[in-house]
Design brief:
The protein is α/β, with parallel strands linked by helices and 375 residues long. Helix content is 38%, strand content 21%. A nine-stranded mixed beta sheet has the order 9-10-8-7-6-5-4-1-11, sandwiched between helices. Strands 12-13-14 form a three-stranded antiparallel beta sheet, with no helix packed on it. α1 packs parallel to α2.
Protein backbone atom coordinates (compact mmCIF):
# COMPACT_ATOMS: atom_id res chain seq x y z
CA UNK A 1 0.00 0.00 0.00
CA UNK A 2 1.57 3.27 -1.15
CA UNK A 3 1.30 6.65 0.54
CA UNK A 4 -0.22 9.65 -1.22
CA UNK A 5 2.18 12.02 0.53
CA UNK A 6 4.98 13.61 -1.53
CA UNK A 7 8.35 11.91 -1.04
CA UNK A 8 12.00 12.98 -1.16
CA UNK A 9 15.22 10.96 -1.24
CA UNK A 10 18.19 11.67 1.04
CA UNK A 11 21.58 10.09 0.23
CA UNK A 12 24.30 10.34 2.87
CA UNK A 13 28.02 10.50 2.07
CA UNK A 14 29.74 10.06 5.44
CA UNK A 15 33.30 11.36 4.91
CA UNK A 16 34.97 14.75 5.25
CA UNK A 17 38.56 15.89 4.92
CA UNK A 18 38.50 16.57 8.68
CA UNK A 19 35.93 16.69 11.46
CA UNK A 20 35.02 20.23 12.49
CA UNK A 21 34.92 20.88 16.26
CA UNK A 22 31.27 22.01 16.25
CA UNK A 23 29.90 19.28 13.99
CA UNK A 24 27.56 16.60 15.32
CA UNK A 25 26.56 15.27 11.89
CA UNK A 26 27.36 11.67 11.00
CA UNK A 27 30.78 12.26 9.43
CA UNK A 28 34.25 10.73 9.58
CA UNK A 29 37.72 11.83 8.40
CA UNK A 30 38.31 10.42 4.91
CA UNK A 31 41.99 9.62 5.44
CA UNK A 32 41.15 7.30 8.35
CA UNK A 33 38.66 5.27 6.34
CA UNK A 34 39.62 1.96 4.74
CA UNK A 35 36.34 1.85 2.84
CA UNK A 36 36.41 2.67 -0.87
CA UNK A 37 33.86 4.94 -2.48
CA UNK A 38 33.06 2.10 -4.91
CA UNK A 39 32.16 -0.33 -2.12
CA UNK A 40 30.10 2.31 -0.37
CA UNK A 41 28.32 3.10 -3.64
CA UNK A 42 27.36 -0.56 -4.06
CA UNK A 43 25.82 -0.56 -0.58
CA UNK A 44 23.86 2.62 -1.33
CA UNK A 45 22.49 1.14 -4.55
CA UNK A 46 21.52 -2.09 -2.76
CA UNK A 47 19.86 -0.10 0.01
CA UNK A 48 17.73 1.73 -2.53
CA UNK A 49 16.73 -1.46 -4.36
CA UNK A 50 15.71 -3.11 -1.08
CA UNK A 51 13.41 -0.23 -0.19
CA UNK A 52 12.08 1.22 -3.43
CA UNK A 53 8.79 -0.61 -2.94
CA UNK A 54 7.93 2.08 -0.36
CA UNK A 55 7.75 4.59 -3.22
CA UNK A 56 4.79 2.97 -4.95
CA UNK A 57 4.01 5.02 -8.05
CA UNK A 58 5.39 8.24 -6.57
CA UNK A 59 8.15 10.37 -8.10
CA UNK A 60 10.71 12.22 -5.97
CA UNK A 61 10.02 15.90 -5.37
CA UNK A 62 13.67 16.17 -4.34
CA UNK A 63 16.94 14.25 -4.14
CA UNK A 64 19.54 15.46 -1.67
CA UNK A 65 23.19 14.36 -1.40
CA UNK A 66 24.22 15.34 2.14
CA UNK A 67 27.12 14.60 4.42
CA UNK A 68 29.84 14.63 5.34
CA UNK A 69 31.17 16.27 2.21
CA UNK A 70 29.44 14.85 -0.88
CA UNK A 71 31.73 16.91 -3.12
CA UNK A 72 34.38 14.29 -2.27
CA UNK A 73 32.16 11.67 -3.97
CA UNK A 74 33.37 11.43 -7.62
CA UNK A 75 30.79 12.52 -10.23
CA UNK A 76 31.10 9.22 -12.13
CA UNK A 77 29.96 7.34 -8.99
CA UNK A 78 27.25 9.84 -8.13
CA UNK A 79 26.00 9.44 -11.70
CA UNK A 80 25.44 5.72 -11.05
CA UNK A 81 23.14 6.63 -8.16
CA UNK A 82 21.19 9.04 -10.36
CA UNK A 83 20.84 6.42 -13.10
CA UNK A 84 19.53 3.89 -10.57
CA UNK A 85 16.86 6.27 -9.31
CA UNK A 86 16.08 7.83 -12.71
CA UNK A 87 12.65 6.11 -13.05
CA UNK A 88 11.56 8.11 -9.98
CA UNK A 89 12.85 11.51 -11.17
CA UNK A 90 11.00 14.10 -13.25
CA UNK A 91 12.10 17.34 -14.89
CA UNK A 92 10.73 19.14 -11.81
CA UNK A 93 12.77 17.12 -9.28
CA UNK A 94 15.18 19.27 -7.28
CA UNK A 95 18.54 17.46 -7.12
CA UNK A 96 20.79 19.06 -4.50
CA UNK A 97 24.34 18.41 -3.41
CA UNK A 98 26.23 19.79 -0.44
CA UNK A 99 29.79 20.95 -1.08
CA UNK A 100 32.55 22.63 0.88
CA UNK A 101 35.01 25.29 -0.29
CA UNK A 102 38.38 23.68 -0.88
CA UNK A 103 36.83 20.52 -2.33
CA UNK A 104 35.42 21.88 -5.60
CA UNK A 105 36.84 23.34 -8.80
CA UNK A 106 35.14 24.83 -11.85
CA UNK A 107 35.68 21.63 -13.88
CA UNK A 108 34.36 19.44 -11.07
CA UNK A 109 31.28 21.63 -10.66
CA UNK A 110 30.61 21.42 -14.40
CA UNK A 111 30.82 17.61 -14.12
CA UNK A 112 28.28 17.57 -11.28
CA UNK A 113 25.95 19.79 -13.28
CA UNK A 114 26.30 17.57 -16.36
CA UNK A 115 25.12 14.46 -14.47
CA UNK A 116 21.95 16.21 -13.27
CA UNK A 117 22.74 18.12 -10.08
CA UNK A 118 20.64 21.29 -10.32
CA UNK A 119 21.11 22.83 -6.88
CA UNK A 120 24.29 23.42 -4.82
CA UNK A 121 24.56 24.10 -1.10
CA UNK A 122 27.98 25.43 -0.11
CA UNK A 123 29.08 25.18 3.53
CA UNK A 124 30.90 28.51 3.87
CA UNK A 125 29.90 29.27 7.52
CA UNK A 126 31.74 32.62 7.40
CA UNK A 127 33.80 34.84 5.11
CA UNK A 128 35.93 36.07 8.03
CA UNK A 129 39.29 34.31 8.29
CA UNK A 130 39.44 34.62 12.09
CA UNK A 131 36.01 33.03 12.42
CA UNK A 132 36.89 30.27 9.96
CA UNK A 133 40.04 29.47 11.90
CA UNK A 134 38.09 29.38 15.18
CA UNK A 135 35.61 26.96 13.56
CA UNK A 136 38.40 24.66 12.37
CA UNK A 137 37.40 24.99 8.71
CA UNK A 138 39.83 23.83 6.01
CA UNK A 139 39.18 26.88 3.80
CA UNK A 140 39.80 30.61 4.08
CA UNK A 141 37.75 33.54 2.85
CA UNK A 142 39.53 33.70 -0.51
CA UNK A 143 38.79 30.03 -1.22
CA UNK A 144 35.15 30.49 -0.20
CA UNK A 145 34.71 33.44 -2.57
CA UNK A 146 36.41 31.59 -5.42
CA UNK A 147 34.15 28.57 -4.86
CA UNK A 148 31.04 30.78 -5.04
CA UNK A 149 32.29 32.36 -8.27
CA UNK A 150 32.97 28.90 -9.73
CA UNK A 151 29.41 27.77 -8.90
CA UNK A 152 28.00 30.69 -10.88
CA UNK A 153 30.43 30.11 -13.78
CA UNK A 154 29.45 26.42 -13.87
CA UNK A 155 25.88 27.51 -14.60
CA UNK A 156 24.10 26.89 -11.29
CA UNK A 157 21.30 29.43 -10.87
CA UNK A 158 20.00 27.78 -7.70
CA UNK A 159 22.54 27.75 -4.92
CA UNK A 160 22.48 28.09 -1.18
CA UNK A 161 25.15 29.34 1.18
CA UNK A 162 25.33 28.07 4.73
CA UNK A 163 26.28 30.96 7.03
CA UNK A 164 26.47 30.74 10.82
CA UNK A 165 26.34 33.55 13.36
CA UNK A 166 27.10 33.75 17.06
CA UNK A 167 30.65 32.58 16.33
CA UNK A 168 33.63 32.82 18.71
CA UNK A 169 34.56 36.52 19.17
CA UNK A 170 32.17 37.56 16.38
CA UNK A 171 30.91 41.15 16.44
CA UNK A 172 27.72 42.54 14.93
CA UNK A 173 29.66 44.05 12.01
CA UNK A 174 31.40 40.75 11.30
CA UNK A 175 28.08 38.89 11.23
CA UNK A 176 26.44 41.46 8.93
CA UNK A 177 29.46 41.51 6.62
CA UNK A 178 29.06 37.76 6.10
CA UNK A 179 25.49 38.34 4.87
CA UNK A 180 26.56 41.22 2.60
CA UNK A 181 29.38 39.15 1.09
CA UNK A 182 27.10 36.16 0.53
CA UNK A 183 24.58 38.39 -1.25
CA UNK A 184 27.26 39.92 -3.48
CA UNK A 185 28.33 36.49 -4.72
CA UNK A 186 25.04 35.64 -6.42
CA UNK A 187 23.43 33.06 -4.15
CA UNK A 188 19.64 33.01 -4.27
CA UNK A 189 19.18 31.14 -0.96
CA UNK A 190 20.75 31.48 2.47
CA UNK A 191 20.71 29.20 5.49
CA UNK A 192 21.56 31.64 8.28
CA UNK A 193 21.57 30.12 11.72
CA UNK A 194 23.19 30.34 15.14
CA UNK A 195 26.16 28.20 16.13
CA UNK A 196 25.02 25.84 18.87
CA UNK A 197 27.33 23.79 21.07
CA UNK A 198 26.35 20.14 20.73
CA UNK A 199 27.17 17.70 23.51
CA UNK A 200 29.07 15.06 21.50
CA UNK A 201 31.49 17.45 19.82
CA UNK A 202 34.88 18.97 20.63
CA UNK A 203 33.21 22.34 21.26
CA UNK A 204 30.72 20.59 23.53
CA UNK A 205 33.57 19.41 25.74
CA UNK A 206 35.73 22.54 25.26
CA UNK A 207 33.30 25.44 24.72
CA UNK A 208 34.77 28.56 23.09
CA UNK A 209 33.78 32.07 24.14
CA UNK A 210 30.65 33.01 22.22
CA UNK A 211 28.65 36.27 22.06
CA UNK A 212 26.38 36.72 25.05
CA UNK A 213 22.58 36.69 24.85
CA UNK A 214 22.23 40.45 24.32
CA UNK A 215 24.88 40.42 21.60
CA UNK A 216 23.15 37.46 19.91
CA UNK A 217 19.79 39.24 19.98
CA UNK A 218 21.37 42.32 18.39
CA UNK A 219 22.99 40.18 15.68
CA UNK A 220 19.73 38.37 14.89
CA UNK A 221 17.50 41.45 14.87
CA UNK A 222 19.89 43.37 12.60
CA UNK A 223 20.58 40.31 10.47
CA UNK A 224 16.87 39.75 9.81
CA UNK A 225 16.45 43.40 8.81
CA UNK A 226 19.47 43.29 6.48
CA UNK A 227 18.32 40.07 4.81
CA UNK A 228 14.92 41.64 4.19
CA UNK A 229 16.54 44.75 2.70
CA UNK A 230 18.59 42.55 0.37
CA UNK A 231 15.49 40.80 -0.92
CA UNK A 232 15.73 37.56 1.05
CA UNK A 233 12.36 36.31 2.27
CA UNK A 234 12.46 34.39 5.54
CA UNK A 235 10.14 31.46 4.86
CA UNK A 236 11.33 29.13 7.61
CA UNK A 237 13.29 29.35 10.86
CA UNK A 238 16.73 29.60 9.22
CA UNK A 239 15.87 29.61 5.50
CA UNK A 240 15.88 32.76 3.36
CA UNK A 241 15.29 32.90 -0.38
CA UNK A 242 15.08 35.41 -3.21
CA UNK A 243 13.21 33.17 -5.65
CA UNK A 244 13.51 29.40 -5.06
CA UNK A 245 12.83 27.57 -1.83
CA UNK A 246 14.69 24.40 -0.86
CA UNK A 247 12.08 21.84 -1.92
CA UNK A 248 13.81 19.06 0.01
CA UNK A 249 13.62 20.87 3.32
CA UNK A 250 10.13 22.10 2.54
CA UNK A 251 8.97 18.49 2.18
CA UNK A 252 10.41 17.70 5.63
CA UNK A 253 8.65 20.66 7.22
CA UNK A 254 5.32 19.81 5.57
CA UNK A 255 5.67 16.36 7.16
CA UNK A 256 5.99 14.61 3.81
CA UNK A 257 7.62 11.22 3.35
CA UNK A 258 11.33 10.68 2.75
CA UNK A 259 13.54 7.70 2.11
CA UNK A 260 17.07 7.92 3.51
CA UNK A 261 19.88 5.77 2.13
CA UNK A 262 23.50 5.76 3.27
CA UNK A 263 25.17 5.56 6.68
CA UNK A 264 23.09 7.16 9.43
CA UNK A 265 20.31 8.25 7.06
CA UNK A 266 16.74 8.40 8.40
CA UNK A 267 13.47 7.53 6.66
CA UNK A 268 9.81 8.34 7.30
CA UNK A 269 7.04 6.78 5.25
CA UNK A 270 3.33 6.53 5.78
CA UNK A 271 1.59 3.40 4.53
CA UNK A 272 -2.17 3.42 4.87
CA UNK A 273 -2.97 4.79 8.33
CA UNK A 274 0.44 4.05 9.85
CA UNK A 275 3.65 6.12 9.91
CA UNK A 276 6.94 4.23 9.91
CA UNK A 277 10.52 5.30 10.57
CA UNK A 278 13.95 3.80 10.03
CA UNK A 279 17.46 4.87 11.10
CA UNK A 280 20.45 3.31 9.35
CA UNK A 281 23.60 2.29 11.22
CA UNK A 282 25.88 5.33 11.52
CA UNK A 283 29.29 3.69 11.06
CA UNK A 284 29.87 3.11 7.32
CA UNK A 285 31.11 -0.46 7.84
CA UNK A 286 28.16 -1.30 10.10
CA UNK A 287 25.84 0.23 7.53
CA UNK A 288 27.32 -1.85 4.71
CA UNK A 289 26.90 -5.00 6.80
CA UNK A 290 23.32 -3.98 7.52
CA UNK A 291 22.61 -3.69 3.79
CA UNK A 292 24.37 -6.99 3.02
CA UNK A 293 22.15 -8.74 5.56
CA UNK A 294 19.02 -7.07 4.19
CA UNK A 295 18.31 -5.55 7.60
CA UNK A 296 16.04 -2.62 6.68
CA UNK A 297 13.66 -2.69 9.62
CA UNK A 298 11.07 0.09 9.76
CA UNK A 299 9.33 0.65 13.10
CA UNK A 300 5.84 2.01 13.65
CA UNK A 301 5.63 5.51 15.15
CA UNK A 302 3.28 5.57 18.14
CA UNK A 303 0.15 7.58 17.49
CA UNK A 304 0.65 9.70 20.61
CA UNK A 305 4.08 10.80 19.29
CA UNK A 306 2.73 12.09 15.99
CA UNK A 307 1.23 15.41 17.20
CA UNK A 308 4.60 16.64 18.50
CA UNK A 309 6.43 15.35 15.40
CA UNK A 310 3.97 17.14 13.13
CA UNK A 311 4.23 20.45 15.01
CA UNK A 312 8.02 20.20 15.34
CA UNK A 313 8.25 20.13 11.55
CA UNK A 314 5.24 22.09 10.32
CA UNK A 315 5.76 25.14 12.54
CA UNK A 316 9.33 25.46 11.34
CA UNK A 317 8.07 26.74 7.98
CA UNK A 318 6.07 29.95 8.21
CA UNK A 319 3.34 29.24 5.64
CA UNK A 320 -0.20 29.25 6.98
CA UNK A 321 -1.15 25.76 8.21
CA UNK A 322 -4.44 24.48 6.82
CA UNK A 323 -6.46 22.74 9.52
CA UNK A 324 -6.81 19.60 7.39
CA UNK A 325 -3.03 19.14 7.09
CA UNK A 326 -2.87 17.49 10.50
CA UNK A 327 -5.29 14.71 9.51
CA UNK A 328 -3.88 14.37 6.00
CA UNK A 329 -0.35 13.65 7.25
CA UNK A 330 -0.96 11.89 10.58
CA UNK A 331 -4.43 10.33 10.14
CA UNK A 332 -5.36 11.86 13.51
CA UNK A 333 -8.36 14.08 14.20
CA UNK A 334 -7.60 17.76 14.76
CA UNK A 335 -9.39 17.57 18.12
CA UNK A 336 -6.28 15.79 19.42
CA UNK A 337 -4.41 19.11 19.29
CA UNK A 338 -7.15 21.75 19.11
CA UNK A 339 -7.03 22.70 22.82
CA UNK A 340 -3.26 23.16 22.66
CA UNK A 341 -3.54 25.31 19.55
CA UNK A 342 -6.13 27.47 21.31
CA UNK A 343 -3.82 27.78 24.32
CA UNK A 344 -0.98 28.97 22.08
CA UNK A 345 -3.41 31.43 20.49
CA UNK A 346 -4.44 32.76 23.92
CA UNK A 347 -0.75 33.33 24.72
CA UNK A 348 -0.33 35.40 21.54
CA UNK A 349 1.91 32.81 19.89
CA UNK A 350 -0.51 31.76 17.14
CA UNK A 351 -3.19 33.36 15.00
CA UNK A 352 -6.04 30.96 14.25
CA UNK A 353 -9.36 31.04 12.37
CA UNK A 354 -11.79 28.45 11.01
CA UNK A 355 -9.46 27.25 8.25
CA UNK A 356 -5.84 28.08 9.14
CA UNK A 357 -3.35 28.86 11.88
CA UNK A 358 0.03 30.55 11.73
CA UNK A 359 2.82 31.74 14.00
CA UNK A 360 2.71 35.33 15.20
CA UNK A 361 5.93 37.34 15.27
CA UNK A 362 6.16 36.53 18.99
CA UNK A 363 5.56 32.86 18.16
CA UNK A 364 8.53 32.85 15.80
CA UNK A 365 10.77 33.99 18.64
CA UNK A 366 9.18 31.58 21.12
CA UNK A 367 8.73 28.51 18.93
CA UNK A 368 10.12 26.16 21.60
CA UNK A 369 7.44 27.36 24.05
CA UNK A 370 4.73 26.37 21.56
CA UNK A 371 6.31 22.97 20.91
CA UNK A 372 6.43 22.21 24.64
CA UNK A 373 2.64 22.30 24.65
CA UNK A 374 2.60 19.20 22.43
CA UNK A 375 5.11 17.11 24.38
Amino acid sequence: MSSKLPIGLYIHYPWCIKKCPYCDFNSFPKDKSNCSDENYLNAVLSDFRQNQSYLGDRKFVSVYFGGGTPSLFPPKLMEKVLKEISPFITDATEISMEANPGTVSLDLLKDYKSIGINRLSLGVQSFDDKCLKALGRIHNSKTAIESCEAIVKAGFDNFNLDIMHGLPNQTLDMALNDIKTANSLGCNHLSWYELTLEEDTYFGAHPPKLPNEDELTEIEENGFLLLEELGFNRYEVSGFTKDKRCLHNQNYWYFGDYLGIGAGAHSKVRLGDITYRRANAENPHDYMSQVDEGDNYFYQVKRDELPFEFMLNRLRIFDDVKLEEFFNTTNLDLNVVRDKLLKAKAQGLLQMDDTHYRLTELGRWMLNDILELFL
